[in-house]
Amino acid sequence: MASEAPIGIFDSGIGGLTVAHAIARVLPAERLSYFGDTAHMPYGDRSPELVRSWSVRIAEHLLDQGCKAIVIACNSASATAAAAVRDLAGEAVPVLDVISPVVRAVAGQGHARIGVIGTRATIGSGIYGRTLRDALRESGRDGVVEEWATPLLAPLIEEGWQDHALMDPVLLSYLDAAGWAPDSSGAIDALIPGCTHYPLAMAAMRRVLGEQVDVVDGPGIVAESVRTQLAEEGLLHSGPLAGDHRFSVSDLTPGFERSATRFFGHGLDLAYDPLWA
Ligand code: DGL
Predict the structure, then answer these.
(1) Centre of ligand 1 from the C-alpha of residue 105, in Å
(2) Which residue in 61, 91, 115, 139 is a FRET match for 182, CA 20 to 30 A apart?
(3) 67 in catalytic set
(4) Which tens digits make up the pLDDT trace of 199-258?
(5) Is 212 exposed, middle or buried (0-12, 13-18, 19+ CB in 10 A)?
(6) C-beta atoms surrounding 104 within 10 Å
(7) Which residues of 169-194 are buried (b: 16+ CB within 10 A; e: fewer)?
(8) HSE on the CB side for 25, CA within 13 Å?
């Protein structure tokens, strides 16, 4: 596999652009091919079977484009479809999910109480709690891990309301319901925002939780892990940018174009890929 080949990245929609942006920042020479399944979002409310079958079809599409690696830039798809996508890709093409690198990083940080938030699909899978407890046990550390579904957050963020007056009360209500409110006996000292929409609301999370709580930077951790894995496999591209990025979606509307710019941090051209037509 040539190192000039693109890195394939996919998500249920545009949230995964936070991960694509971090990868582009950490690996500026790499060409990206991004696919957002806007026709089927939100994945967070779908069954694992459906998310798995869509994810496998999208991975096939990225492999057909000659991608040298696949990044599942969606927690809901990482939670339910990573094994199926790895089976499809085989040995030659590494598949990275957005959960394992974060779990590895957080397990080494020595937090006493870790809260994980995400969609119903991600939290319902129990994957963060299970793998994080295993990783803590293996490293001989203690630590409580609790998970809570926060399905109202992604739509608020998609609307651009991460700093709207509604955001803080919604976040606080979830913290209360989970028993993690600051100054309560269940207060957490680290929060994993387990959804690729949530990095846009980091400031709101820090505002509500206070400075003493570590709000984990998922995309930054994932981008570093993509760098490490590509280097290990001899797939890292160096030198000038290997070619133009490609960003495509399965349903193209002006609203998705506006949101894509916000999630990626600057303007980009979205193409329509009629994968389901
Ligand atoms: N980006 C998705 C994730 O990380 C959340 C949005 C959705 O439900 O599709 O889980």
Answers:
(1) 21
(2) 139
(3) no
(4) 999 999 999 999 999 999 999 999 999 999 999 999 999 888 777 999 999 999 999 999
(5) exposed
(6) 15
(7) ebbeebbeebebbeeeeebbbbbbbb
(8) 15
Question: Is-cis flag, bond preceding 42, omega within 30?
Answer: yes
How far apart are the C-alpha atoms of 16 and 3, rounded to whole Å?
A: 23
* 30 pocket-lining for ligand 1 (C-beta < 6 Å): no
Q: Shortest CA distance to 13 belongs to which of 68, 51, 65, 67?
A: 51
Domain boundaries, the chain: 7-98+220-272, 100-218
Testing ligand 1's pocket by substitution, the residue of 19, 119, 262, 263 carrying the most ligand atoms inside 8 A of its CB is: 119
pLDDT tens digits, one per residue of 111-131: 999 999 999 999 999 999 999
Q: Which two tokens stand for residue 47?
A: 């069954």
Model pLDDT for residues 127-159, shown as the tens digit of each residue: 999 999 999 999 999 899 999 999 999 999 999
Name which residue sits closest to atom 7 of ligand 1, judged by CA: 42
Closest CA to 40 of 260, 251, 257: 251
Q: Is 74 a catalytic residue?
A: yes
Question: For 7-98+220-272, CATH number?
Answer: 3.40.50.1860
Q: Name the residue type at position 33.
A: S
If you count them, how many residues does the chain have? Answer: 277
What's the topology of domain 100-218?
A: Rossmann fold (3.40.50)
Ligand 1 geometric centre to CA of 45 (Å): 9
3-state secondary structure of 232: helix
Neighbouring residues of 247: CB distance < 8 A, sequence distance ≥ 6:
17, 20, 32, 34, 36, 260, 264, 268, 269, 270, 271
